[in-house]
Design brief:
The structure is a homodimer. By secondary structure, the first copy, chain A, is α/β, with parallel strands linked by helices. Helices cover 39% and strands 15% of the residues of chain A. Chain A has a 7-stranded mixed β-sheet, sandwiched between helices. A 6-stranded parallel β-sheet of chain A has the order 2-1-3-4-5-11, with helices on both faces. In chain A, strand 1, helix 5 and strand 2 (94-99) form a beta-alpha-beta unit. Strand 2 (94-99) of chain A pairs antiparallel with strand 2 (94-99) of chain B, so a sheet runs across the interface. The first copy, chain A, binds a DNA duplex through residues 6-8, 16-23, 25-26, 30-32, 35, 50-51, 53-60. Chains A, B: Keywords: DNA-binding, Transcription, Transcription regulation. Chains A, B: It comes from Tengunoibacter tsumagoiensis.
Chain lengths: 376, 376
DNA sequence: CTGTTAGCGCTTTCAG
DNA sequence: CTGAAAGCGCTAACAG
């Protein structure tokens, strides 16, 4: 409250030059320990808060990190953001949010990225986008702007990213169904422009192949990760003659699984009795619906945290310039340094959460035991 | 891309002083129209992007708006943010997000607000918080920092806010149940620290009173707006002897209603047959659950948009200083001005969305007609 | 290790 | 209506 102190005030109070104050502020090594302590003290006493704006102007880099997100409406975005904001809370950075308009034409993505690049307001960017937008994001990286792709990444070797191992998660889910005795296992695909849609399909194929089950094209249908986009696919699969109808289904998202369960119900098929269903994501409501959904849990908050960690590591390190990228191709993008602990590519593990919808649990489910679920 | 142009570059290209360029940039009136046009032209051609940082430093006010949110995990926050970010997209402002740590002790709110006040990074703040946090927020306002309370407001006459008319929405919901013939209508209350919990209760009481139905304390139980926090309350209400057991229930949120439906199921009570249920919020899944939930829809995105509008109006207007607040008490907080269209207090209407859970619809519901729902 | 000197890019008086 | 000059609060070379 009181008044707003500036670096000059602190310098005066401490009897040093403002350059020195600036040095302790930025943890430069070349400061006498006792001086440093005294300055820290004084800053504490008057509860000095440096101006982000001024340091940004002078230093050419603001203590802001940007996060580019698709629609706030997608619940997983909120989960990732929870991790992001919690992590940011432990740093001196503030959080700037850029969101792609819900009805954005495709090249709005380019526009907003251009905007970010031209304002250079944030020091770096976390981009949560469908994988096929990677080229846009890569432009930033090429221009030397620190950026980390998050969630649905193209595994681009040249750009830092954080994702989950969707292939393995899906593999585990389908393998679980196979172990439950199913042979006719269907899959509802996600939209083609998401890398992870392919990855989930790939995990599905892999599990089938390992079990020596031939892939049946009749059992694969196209969804779009959302509830309504899966209804047609579900109808298509469940209307098959009983002899060829799937006895189990691996959905590319939980929402897709919800649609399957509802459609199954409309066909008089019981889940899991007549159809075992497994989803992917483990969004909040999946533990609550009936039957509770067996699904592959993504560590959304952790994804966000890792993204921030990675980005901040990048910011403490001289950013890889476009000019020297040829060299970087074969080397790690980052040289090891104090701030740099993790490698520039992080792939997180998923876990299979077994609940009622896959039929693995025999016992009756009661309201009070909705939450406990076995985590493999 | 190319290089980054500065005001000086533009000034040089246009053959004027940078002061003039700055004037057109900020839409000051005192500029020769032709000069203004020429400068606009040039800025266009080189796609000049002024530095937010520099103008912030020089002008003392950054073109950033802050939004303070409780947990990203609450889905309604995402909806509000959707409106906020869409609105912000139409302005030259950027969006800064402050989020209260999930496991925040209560006075962290004070801390983060202090932080915002002392950094003065954003030009103004939209505060989405439980109503009982109003005093913290009011401190900002008292210090002359533009702030708008959003969603759960204390109706503080002295501070700008945006909310929905929860009382009336609840009244409509309960009235609808009464019109359906119910007399024993229960209510599950929200947490005491939310103003809107009281408002919803108030609307409930009002509808009962109007119908000449005596309020029965046995039929009111305490929840906390969340699913798990409502299970006990639901048990309490539904375990009543059949003669006194409620035939209908107005839940303070949709999540609360979900819990009621599940508990009813565990008692062998059919919804809506044995128990009509109405929620409040209309979150995304409420149209999808079975039975589809009759509920009071809050215009979340619109709340966000109005909040931004109001805040921006405040920013174009000399902010009410603490010193002159005595005068302001009896007058509108804002003097009318170009940027100021809406009054500083906005209360939005809710709508009752009638679906299956209240028993008003007789027809069988099929998967394909999950979405269509009657909006009163 | 520390002080001095220039600015970062823009806004803002204050004179014209 | 317009230009000149003086910073906003901080960082970043340089010299010492």
């Amino acid at each position: 409250m009181a008044r707003k102190y500036t670096i000059d005030d602190i310098a005066q109070l401490a009897g040093v030059s403002k350059a020195t104050v600036s040095r302790v502020l930025n943890n430069k090594p070349d400061v006498d320990p006792s001086t440093r302590a005294r300055i820290h003290q004084i800053m504490q006493e008057v509860s000095f808060v440096p101006s982000i704006t001024a340091s940004g102007l002078a230093g050419g880099r603001n203590r802001l990190v940007g996060v580019l997100i698709p629609s706030f409406s997608w619940s997983f975005v909120g989960e990732i953001m929870r991790g992001v904001s919690e992590m940011i809370g432990h740093t001196p950075y503030e959080l700037l949010v850029y969101s792609i308009n819900d009805m954005a034409r495709d090249n709005d993505k380019g526009d907003i990225l251009d905007h970010i690049l031209s304002t250079k307001l944030p020091a770096g960017l976390l981009a949560i986008l469908p994988g096929h937008s990677a080229p846009y994001v890569e432009r930033l990286h090429t221009h030397g702007f620190p950026v980390v792709m998050v969630d649905d990444t193209a595994h681009h070797p040249n750009m830092p990213w954080v994702n989950v191992d969707s292939v393995h998660g899906s593999y585990l889910a389908v393998k679980h169904l196979i172990e439950l005795g199913h042979r006719r296992i269907a899959h509802i695909y996600g939209p083609q422009n998401f890398i992870c849609a392919h990855e989930r399909y790939q995990g599905y194929c892999q599990a089938l192949e390992e079990a020596g089950i031939a892939l049946d094209p009749l059992l694969v249908a196209q969804g779009n990760f959302e509830y309504h986009g899966a209804l047609d696919a579900a109808h298509q699969l469940l209307s098959l003659p009983a002899e060829v109808r799937p006895t189990a289904l691996f959905a590319s998202t939980d929402l897709t699984a919800y649609a399957v369960i509802d459609v199954a119900d409309s066909y008089g098929l019981r889940v899991p009795g007549d159809l075992a269903v497994v989803g992917f994501d483990d969004i909040e409501s999946s533990a609550r619906i009936r039957p509770a959904l067996t699904t592959v849990r993504q560590p959304f908050a952790e994804i966000g945290k890792c993204g921030v960690e990675l980005l901040l590591a990048l910011l403490n390190t001289p950013v890889q310039r476009a000019d020297s990228s040829l060299l970087a191709l074969s080397l790690p993008v980052l040289t090891p340094s104090e701030g740099m602990v993790r490698p520039p590519h992080i792939s997180l593990q998923t876990t299979l959460v077994v609940r009622a919808s896959c039929g693995a649990q025999r016992q009756q489910q009661s309201v009070d035991e909705i939450i406990p679920s076995k985590v493999l």
